[in-house]
C-alpha cells in the first residue's frame, strides 16, 4: 500500500523530473559537442525533443492532479459558492470525455505506427514509442479526473473551496 500511495502522490512529478533532467543533459552535451569539440551529435536533439513530448503529456496529468488547468480557475472565480462544486464536476466530466477520446484515437495512431513500422530519422527507434505519449498521458489524466470527480461528489457543496 505504501508503494501505491507513493505512486499516486508522485508518479507524474517523478516522470516529469526524469524527462526534464534527461532533456537538459542531452542539450548540454549537444552544446558541448557542437561548440567545444566542433562535432555535432546527430541524435541528441531528436531524443531531447521526444523527452519534451513525453514530459508535456505527463505534465497534463500532473496539472489535473494539482487543479492547475484554466477550467478549474474559471469555476472558482465566477461561480456562486453553492454552485462551484457542481460546475467543477461538469468541467471534470467534460475534460474526462475529452481525455477518453484522445486515449482512443491515440491508440489508433499508435497501432497505425506499429503497422507501418516507421522509424525516427536520426535514432531509428520505432515511432510508436513517441506516439504513445498522448494516449498514456491522457490515460493518467483520466485517472486523475475520476479521482477528482469522486472527491467532489463526496464533499458537501458548502465545504467546496
Describe the structure.
The chain is mainly alpha-helical and 161 residues long. The protein has one domain. Helices cover 77% and strands 0% of the residues. The chain is built from six helices and no strands. The protein has helices at 2-35, 44-65, 70-78, 84-116, 128-131, 133-154. The mean pLDDT is 89.
Strand segment count: 0
User: Any idea what the shape is?
Assistant: elongated
Q: How many H/I helical runs?
A: 6
Number of domains: 1
Task: Please report the distance between the alpha carbons of the first and last residues.
Answer: 29 Å
Radius of gyration: 20 Å
Mean pLDDT: 89
- Unreliable segments of 5+ consecutive residues: none
**Classification by helices and strands:** mainly alpha
* Share of β-strand residues: under 5%
Salient structural properties:
161 residues, 77% helix, elongated
List the helices and strands and how they pair.
Blueprint: H1 2-35, H2 44-65, H3 70-78, H4 84-116, H5 128-131, H6 133-154
State the gist of this model.
By secondary structure, this protein is mainly alpha-helical. It is built from 6 helices and no strands. The two termini are 29 Å apart.
